[in-house]
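Q: How would the structure tokens look for this protein?
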Amino acid sequence: MKELLERKTWSGALGVARIVAILSAIWVMVVSVASLIGVTGYSPAKADVPMAIMLASLAFLAGYQMGQSRRP
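A: Here is the predicted structure in token form.
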């Protein structure tokens, strides 16, 4: 947890990917809850693009961290 709170890990492309993943996850949760309670205008289809963006940013984060673990 201490490493996550350090500023070094939140800078550059890695930080941007983390922020995008968090914002996309929040949007997907908002759309999901709104569609469950029946708010008009929110359908599960509105979560498709944020879900794709979130998965792409998570793939980048996983690839980056896997690449860092294989460094000598």
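The chain has a mean pLDDT of 79.

The radius of gyration is 15 Å.

Upvote if useful.
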